Amino acid sequence: MAQAAGLDRHESYPYIGRAAPNRLQAKDADILKYELGINIVRTSHYPQDPEFLDRADQVGLLVLEEIPGWQHIGDAAWQDLAVENVREMVMRDRNHPSIVLWGVRINESGDNHDFYTRTNNLARQLDPSRPTGGVRNFKTSEFLEDVYTYNDFSGGAEDPARLPWLITEAVGHTDPDRSWDPEPVLVHTMQTHLNVQNQANAKSNIAGALDWAAFDYNTTFDTESCIDSTCYHGVSDIFRIPKVAASVFASQRDPGLYGPYVSINNYWMPGSSSSTVYVAGNCQQVELFANGASKGRISPNAYTSLPHPFFQFDNVTGPAGSLRADCWIGGRIVATDTRYTPGTATRLALVADDASLAADGGDMTRVVVKALDSNNQVVPFNNATVTFSVSGPGAVVGSNPLVLEAGTGAVYLKSALGLTGTISLSASAPGLAAAAPITISATAFTTPIVPTSGSYSFGFPVDVNDRVTGNGRNQFAYAGSWGNTPDNLLFNKDNTWSNAANSTATLAFTGNRVVLYGVLDASHGSAAVSIDGGTEQTISFQSSTRRGNVALWSSAKLAQGNHALRVRVVGNGPIALDRATVVSEAPASVSAPSPVPPNDLIPQSQWSLKFVDSEELLGESQSLSGPAMSAFDGSPNTFWHSRWQTATDPLPHEIQIDLGGTYNVYSFRYYPRQDRANGRIGQYEFYVSQDGTNWGSAVASGTFPDSAAEQTVTFTAKAGRYVRLRALSSLDGQPFTTVGNLQVSGTASQPVTTVDDRITGTGANQFNYSGSWQSCANCGMELYAGTNSWHNVANDSVTVAFSGTQIRFYGVRDPRHGIGMVSVDGGPETALDFHNPTRQGNILLWTSPVLAAGSHTFKLRVTGTANPSATGTWVVPDRVDIVG
Fold first, then answer.
1. Integer Cα distance of 285 and 331 in angstroms
2. What one-character-per-residue DSSP string does 338-351 give?
3. What whole-number distance in Å separates Cα of residue 63 and Cα of residue 53?
4. What is the mean pLDDT of the chain?
5. Which residues contact 163 (CB under 8 A, 6 or more apart)?
6. Residues sharing a CB contact under 8 Å with residue 120, sequence separation 6 or more, in sequence order
7. What distance in Å separates the CA atoms of residue 176 and residue 191, rounded to the nearest whole number?
8. Is the C or the N end of the chain the one with fewer CB within 10 Å?
9. Which of 694, 641, 670 is nearest to 745 (CA)?
C-alpha cells in the first residue's frame, strides 16, 4: 500500500485572501494532484471551501480536514464552540469521499482530556466510518484519537511513539526559501523535504508525511521566516508557481497514470552552481548531457526509499551552456528537460489558466507573467517591473505594476457581472519586448441562482456602507438631523436613520449605476430619491415585518462618470439607510495603491544583487538570513552574513547592488543586525557607479558606532545605478560582516533602456549591421545576456537609431581585438581600443556627450587596425544603454 505523501494547504490567495471564486478553489485541487503530484492534503487549520472538496472528490485527492484553531484552548464556553465546530464540519462534509481523517484537536495545542474526549466522541458518533486525528507537536501527548498525527520538524522522520503514526507538518519554517533565493538555499530546502519523505518511506510503521506547506501564504507575523506579510514556507510561491522543492513531490507521481516527469535542479552557472546535479524524475533511468557531452546514463541512486528516487550526478563541470536530462522508461526516451545557463531577460510572456470566464462578477483566472531570455527560459534573478493593461469587460486584480520575483509573478483577470465579450490583457516592462496579448472570453452567466428582491448590478460593484461618511467619492454626506444605531441583522451591523422632513443623504460616486439598500419596518415612512438633481422618485421604507439590507431602488443605466445620489426624507415617518452599491464599468485594475517611499528612499523591490564577496547560504537555520539579498529585503529580522559555516572569508567584505535605475544618490542607511552584535560594521566605504565597473573614489567613508540603532550617512549627490558598501573592519574584531537592512536615498534620473547586441533590425532601439557580422548566444557569463557580435572587415559598421539624450556603448575586450570608431549623427569619430591582455565582457567603452532630446543615430565602424599588442583586429559590441 502506498504511503501518504502530501502537503498542508492554507486557503490563502494573493490579493484576495480567502475570497476566491469556485474556479480558483478547484484549480488548487488540480495543482496539488496533477502538478505537485501529492495524494493527500491537510486543510490547515480549518475546514475549507466545499468547491475545493468537490474537486478533491473528483480527482481522487485525499483530505485530512480539521477544526479551526492554533495552539490556544479557551474556557468552557470557548470549548463548547469548538465542539460545535466539530459537529458543523462533520455534518457539512461527511459525504465527501475524499475525506479520510477528521482533525478534532486544536492544532499544536496542549492536552485537555475532557475537551478532546468530547471532540473525538462526537466525530465518531456523527461519522463512524472515518478515524480521528489530532495534530500536536510533542511526542508525549495523550492519545485519544485513532491516528497519532504529529508535526515533526527534526529535518527527517522520527521513530513513532504511538501507532498508527502520521507526520502532518515538516520543513516549512525550519527551512524557508524565497523563489529568488540563491540556488544553494533552494537546493538545501529541497534536500530537507527529500530527507523527510525518504525517511518516512523507509519506515513501515509511519503512515506517511505531509510537509509544510504547499504554497507560501500571507500573514500578520514578522519573523525570521515570514517577512513582507508573507510566510515563505511553501514548495510553491504564493502564486502557485513551483520552487525547486516542488520537484520532490512532482517526481513521485505514477508515470503510467500521470505521465513522465523529469526536472534538472541546477541553474548550470559556472562558479556558483554546484558540481553535484540532482535530477528529479519518475524515470527508470536518466542520461545527463553537459553542453552536449554525456555524463552517463544511470538508474536512480539518491534518496532510494522514495517510490521514485532522485538521480545524483557528481563532478559535473564545464563552461556556460546547457544541461539536458533524458528520461528513459521501457528502453526509450519519454521526456526531456533542458536547463540553459540563465541569460539576460529579453521579453515577457503571459500564460492564463483558462480561456473563458463566466460573467458573474466574481469569476477570475490566474495569469502568470514570465521574463524570458533568448532561450525562452525564465530568468530566475529577474525583477522587472511589469505594467498590465486590459480592455473589454474585465479587470486586473493584483499589483499593477507588479515587480517580478525570480522572473515570474501573477495577477488575476476578473469578469464583470452581466458583461460579455472578449477581455484582452497585455504586459510590458522597460527594456523587455512586450508580451503578446492574451484574450479570454467572458460568457453569459446562466447558472440558476436563488432569487432575491431588488435589482441586480451589472459591471463592477462596490458596496458603500451607510456609516462611511464624508464629502469624497463613495461617501455618504448627511445634512439635517440623522442618527445611527447598531443592529446585528443589518449590513455591517448598523444603519443610519432620520424622521426629520427634508433631511438629506448625498452619495457622490463614479460609475454608471447605483442601487440603494435600506431597512423596512412597519413604523417607517418614505423618501424621495434623485440622481444629479433630476426628478425625484418616492420610495417606501414601510413593511409589516422588519427586514434589513433590502434593495429599494436602482438608478437607470447612467453614462460612465461622476454622479450624485440624493435621498430626502419626506416626513411621513422615519427612514433607515443600510448601504448603497455603486456599479462601474470595468476598471483597468483592482489593486491597492503602491506605497510611496519616504525621504526619496529608492524602492528595494527593484534592486538586485550585482556582487557579494562572501555570504552564508546554509548556516542561519530557521531563518531567511544569510544570503546577501537579505540585506535589502526590507525586514529588520533578516540579515546578510558573510560566510562562516564551511569557511571564514577575511575582511574586507563588500556588497554591490543594482538599484534598478539611475538616481542622483545622496544618502544611505545602515541598519545593523539586531539579535546580536556579531558582524556589525566598524570602518566602511560607500561608492556609487554608473556602470558597476568603474567605481572611482568613495563618496563616503568612516566608522560606525557600536550600536544597534540605524545609522544614516549623507554625502554630495552622485548619479549612478549601482552602489557598493565595503566593510573594512568589524566592531567586535571578528572577520565577519552583517547588514540587517540597507536603504539608499536618491532622486530619479532619466530612464535608461538597455539594448543587447542581438536585438537586431532597422527600427528604433535595434542593432542594424552592415556587412557579414558574426554572433553567438550562450558565449560566456562575462557577456551581457551571454551574447556578442564581431567583425573585422574595414569600414563595415553597425548603427543604432534611438530617441534620448545620451547613449553609452559597452563592448568586449580581448587579446585578439582591434580598434573601432564611434560617432553620433554623422559627427566626429572617436577611436575605441577593444584590446586587453585578458578577456572582459560588458565593459563600458564610450559615453556620448549629452544630446538634445529627440531622435539620434549611433554608429560603430570597423577600422581593420589594432594596437601593436593585439593579435587580431576584431571589433565586438555587447550592448548599449540609451538615456532618456
1. 9
2. EEEPP----EEEEE
3. 8
4. 93
5. 148, 205
6. 104, 132, 134, 144, 145
7. 12
8. N
9. 670
Helix 22-30 vs helix 50-59: crossing angle, to nearest 10: 40
The answer for residues whose C-beta is within 8 angstroms of residue 95's C-beta and 6 or more apart is none
Kindly provide the residue ranges of all beta strands, DSSP E only, lying in 219-264, ordered along the sequence. Answer: 226-227, 230-231, 262-264
C-alpha cell at 863: 577600422
Q: How confident is the model at residue 589 (pLDDT cuts 50, 70, 90)?
A: low
Catalytic residues: 108, 169
Is cis: bond before 556, omega within 30 of 0? Answer: no
Instruction: Please report, for residues 162, 233, 279, the alpha-carbon distance to residue 245 in angstroms, rounded to integers and kept in the order given.
Output: 29, 11, 12
Cis amide linkage into residue 176, ω under 30° from 0: no
pTM more than 0.70? yes
- Sign, CA dihedral 462-468-474-479, equals positive
Cα separation, 843 vs 834, in Å, equals 10
* Distance (Å, whole) CA 782 – CA 754: 16
pLDDT at 1 over 50: no
C-alpha 293/C-alpha 322 separation (Å) is: 10
- Measured between alpha carbons, how far is residue 574 from residues 487, 499, 502, 549, 658 in Å? 16, 4, 11, 16, 64
- At 849-861, the pLDDT tens digits run 888 889 999 999 9
Residues in the chain: 884
* Cell representation of residue 781: 557569463
Angle at 173 between CA 167 and CA 178, to 5 degrees: 125
* pLDDT tens digits along 501-516: 999 999 999 888 999 9
Q: In angstroms, rounded to a whole number, what is the distance separating the alpha carbons of residues 645 and 659?
A: 30
> Is the preceding peptide bond at 401 cis, omega within 30 degrees of 0?
yes
- What is d(CA 651, CA 638) in angstroms, rounded to the nearest whole number? 21
Burial class of residue 488, CB neighbours in 10 A (0-12, 13-18, 19+)? exposed
C-alpha cell at 471: 464629502
pLDDT band at 595 (very low <50, low <70, confident <90, very high): low
**Alpha carbons 201 and 465: distance in angstroms, whole number:** 55
